[in-house]
Amino acid sequence: MSLSSYPLDAIEALTPSQMDFLKALPKAELHAHLNGSIPLPVLQQLAREYYVAPDTDSDSSFQTEIERLREGVVLETIEEFFTLFTTIYALTSTREALARVTDAVLAEFLDPIGGEEYPQATYLELRSTPRETIAMTRLEYVETVLDRVERYLPDQAALIVSLDRRMPQEVADECIGVAITLKSRGRRIVGVDICGHPTAGDMGFFERQMSAARAAGLGITVHIAETIDNTPEDTLKLLSFKPNRLGHATFLNEEAQAIVIREKMAVEICLTSNFLCKTVSDLETHHIQYYLKENHPIAICTDDTLPFRTNLLGEYAMLLAPTPYGLGLSEGEVEKIAAMAHGSRFQFDG
Ligand code: 6MZ
């Protein structure tokens, strides 16, 4: 995979011995969206195989969209990010295609690839939003993904079911119902998430689903305060669900920050994602600095390796590389951060 300039510059700034250290470091990936993490060649192959009636031009529009992904998306704002998924979703809407992309994502994270001795991650909590398509129900969607996840050991891979902020009540109920039912059958669902366009929807509506998930013993993580437009009410509502972990947590006000620190809610940090979505301008002003200063648990994550052209090694390289390419932390400090991510995993009791 060709990397974005941020992780690439950091990787290039590492000494060979620092590189060896990072590769061998056991890394837990806790924030990776399935449809945002598909390796580009796999998506390109799916686009080539996609049947299109000869009198439509959607085939060429797929290719144009995928070409954009290949070249690397340049986003003016985070708003533009969410439209990328129209094409990807069209290509992953059968059980067969979904199984294929899930296998590819799992392999990219968990198998040593290209003669490497170590995998990108020693543990992956993959997340995905159950989708109903012409070919499958939401239950079948989750079962298809789980079937692939469970080919790995429980201490290697697990699934988080995402709710989209735009979901109608009945769909959110159905998704949580699916997660709880499958968990009760011993399937490897360890948590639930709220994701999607950061300012869409009314988070008050998710209270019922979040308490049901908690009562069923599922971990809770929520995308929170990802953009400057997220209101304090939205943020406080999400915190009232008592999440164990938080995605991004970029624009917390003092009140919210105090809750996060007091309740020790681990923060999933996605550096390249924030830079490319232009919610944070550089490492110096990134909120990771605050959490490091507070010695607060964080997990370094990739978010969406496909559009952001990154990988877990690149994200960790930004901790270790000297400034201005990285934070210039010591190997001992980076080791401690990696251990925090492992310590923030959701439990699987199946
Ligand atoms: C919020 C995001 C996201 O679930 O179909 N998603 N939601 N913020 C982000 N940061 C940039 N990145 C991805 O994976 C794709 C879905 O994940 C959410 C979006 O809702 C996207 O449609 P799944 O596997």
What does this 3D model show about the protein?
By secondary structure, this protein is of the alpha/beta class. It has 16 helices and 8 strands. The chain has helices at 5-12, 16-24, 40-49, 58-71, 85-91, 95-110, 138-149, 169-184, 207-215, 232-240, 254-262, 271-276, 288-293, 305-308, 312-320, 331-343, and strands at residues 28-33, 123-128, 157-164, 189-195, 219-224, 245-248, 266-269, 298-300. Strands 1-2-3-4-5-6-7-8 form an 8-stranded parallel β-sheet. Strand 2 (123-128), helix 7 and strand 3 (157-164) form a beta-alpha-beta unit. Helix 1 (5-12) packs across helix 15 (312-320) and helix 2 (16-24) packs across helix 15. The protein is globular. The two termini are 35 Å apart. The mean pLDDT is 94. The structure holds N6-methyladenosine-5'-monophosphate. The site of N6-methyladenosine-5'-monophosphate has 18 residues, from strand 3.
